[in-house]
Amino acid sequence: MARQYPLERIRNIGIIAHIDAGKTTVTERVLFYTGISHKIGEVHEGAAVMDWMEQERERGITITSAATTAFWTHTQNEKGDAKNEHRINIIDTPGHVDFTVEVERSLRILDGGVVVFDGVAGVEPQSETVWRQADKYNVPRICFINKLDRTGASFENSLKSIQERLTPNAIAIQIPVGSESELNGVIDLITKTHYRFEGTFGENMVKEDSIPEHLKDEVESRRDELLEKIAENDEQFMEHYLGGEQVQESDIIAALRTATLTGSLVPVFTGSALKNQGVQLLLDAIVAYLPSPTDVPNMVGENPKDNSQEERKTSDEEPFSALAFKVATDPFVGQLVYFRVYSGMLKAGSTIYNSSTESKERLSRIVRMHANSREEVKELYAGGIAAAVGLKNTTTGDTLCDMDNPIILEKITFPEPVISVRIEPKTRADQDKMGIALRRLSEEDPTFRISSDEETKETIMSGMGELHLEVLVDRMKREFSVEAEVGKPQVAYRETIKGTVEQEAKYIRQSGGRGQYGHVKIRLEPQEPGAGFEFVNEIKGGVIPSEYIPAIEKGVKEAMQKGVLAGYQMVDVKITLYDGSFHEVDSSEAAFKIAGSMAFQDGARQANAVLLEPIMGVEVTVPEEFMGDVTGDLSSRRAQIEELGERSNLKTVKATVPLANMFGYTTDLRSMTQGRGSSVMEFSRYQEVPNNIASELIEGRQK
């Protein structure tokens, strides 16, 4: 079977935004207008197709990124003309910061993004977070200012907030006709056309003969601004434009597409998804301006045989390579592994190689997902996104490839958990079920970790925030029928060193028969915050044979799991192995591992070890009359207030504050502001704990 859609007519896009900007409603409209769903599912009625988990429908938020496939022909082309139809693979991602892993892994495998903004609030805290994540992966994007039907909505203010807080390269391609309850379509600045949307669901797009009189001047000035911006980024276009030539619409669109793909311009569209205004034109923009798989750079990976760099072109003729970006448990088919094919093609039933785990995998079935329903496919080509059934040893971030042409693609990096709770099953029957549930959930979510306390033998769950852990406990109960008792949230403290120390350790045992001998000298040095662990081997002339070096590193790593102050994990340390000795007969990997561990622990005690705590970035939005109470309360929580601002008719407070002081803050804020205040919190960094609090924590751990 041949490829149905050429690569130029495929779009892999994500819909990303702050919580409550209307991402899922936009996606629901996309599914309706593209014919994937025949009925519009509303988030506020708990019927959205893409929010298919029970918790999502109850809470009205997106928790997992849902993948779907839709088909669209640009409205300028004849419907039903197969040569103009595009396949759009869409991922609707969560907006809540606790589920940031879903955005991170989606952006890693997407080619383009649609960033949705609330027309009343404009840029919100999480808008900035997802924008930075898109920057990190160089994802070209377009913006959609949504909810212009709401009271207080302003296209002008929202556009200004994007230009001031995110990028000066944002440029309006449309303007709304009216706003709030008077919203009556949009004007396309390129074609100077007024579009209205009629019918029960706005499915009839009507072109008006003329632009409303009161908007004519604005259309001309904004169009001039648009053409000037394009000219700044395109020399050929500039020559025509400055030469006074009449520029063709097709030339404007082509130049704007090029500027969007390079990130030098970000086109801004507008409307109201809920009121069915402007979504068809947003689909046109996805097709016109966002990249196909051939418009993005080729994937570069590492050949595991010789560690050389290799490139994979986006082509069906290349050797097969793909990245697994999500693992999910499906009640009907078991474990699903979502993956993006970068090169080559894949047939259902074939055996592939997981180069990350160095294991063979047999892929029994390939399914294309429509939220939580599926369509079976026999083959998948370069640029495709689908889910695999039957992969046993594949997790998020693993590379799948051709057996004879192995490659390891760049892994996805995830933030470390910052909050933990103790969990225990209510009954003996729940014990085994809980183990299975926790293992499954941690396979799905790389920011969710399970560990056990060696002293108390209790199970500890760690995640990104209170809501994250709350949802996971809820999922255990619903999906795995596990009843569990959950303890109070605990902060994930860390330890590090501030001084540089050289340390020697010898591990020598003689007890009849063969002895044990390991002797190492290491240097411990502090690293920059967030730099992590680094091990440097400076052994010269074989004073320690090379086969023992990995064992020394392993011993150091194990010792770092339990710090010297209060037993918390140690981070941001550089270890240099510079000397030592060995015994021809008695030396072994085990002896050197123990010597490495001893040297690290002894050295850390002398290297001015300190406690670190997670610091959160918080943005609080409140009516003005509560401002004093809110800032006073934050100060009492050891907050550093960084910025006071305004959004619409509300006041905003930006601060950094220790996580330890923020448990239950949402509830406290509601009672302090008569339910009118809201807050968003995300992990910022680790920072040294003040001495008086550190000594209390250390004493508490030692009791």
UniProtKB/TrEMBL annotation:
Signal peptide: none
Binding-site residues for GTP, renumbered to this chain: 17-24, 92-96, 146-149
Main localization, broad class: cytoplasm
Basic and acidic residues bias (residue ranges): 303-316
Name assigned to this protein: Elongation factor G
Segments forming domain Tr-type G: 8-294
GO BP terms in the entry: ribosome disassembly
Chain positions covered by the region annotation Disordered: 294-316
Record localization: Cytoplasm
Gene Ontology cellular component annotations, sorted alphabetically: cytoplasm
PANTHER family reported for this sequence: RIBOSOME-RELEASING FACTOR 2, MITOCHONDRIAL, TRANSLATION ELONGATION FACTOR G-RELATED
Annotated SMART domains: EFG_C (SM00838), EFG_IV (SM00889)
Any GO molecular function: GTPase activity
Similarity annotation: Belongs to the TRAFAC class translation factor GTPase superfamily. Classic translation factor GTPase family. EF-G/EF-2 subfamily.
UniProt entry tagged with the keyword ATP-binding: no
Gene giving rise to this polypeptide: fusA
UniProt KW keywords: Cytoplasm, Elongation factor, GTP-binding, Nucleotide-binding, Protein biosynthesis
CDD domains: EF-G, EFG_III, EFG_mtEFG1_IV, EFG_mtEFG_C, EFG_mtEFG_II
InterPro entries, alphabetized: EFG_II, EFG_III, EFG_III/V, EFG_IV, EFG_V, EFG_V-like, EFTu-like_2, G_TR_CS
Function: Catalyzes the GTP-dependent ribosomal translocation step during translation elongation. During this step, the ribosome changes from the pre-translocational (PRE) to the post-translocational (POST) state as the newly formed A-site-bound peptidyl-tRNA and P-site-bound deacylated tRNA move to the P and E sites, respectively. Catalyzes the coordinated movement of the two tRNA molecules, the mRNA and conformational changes in the ribosome.
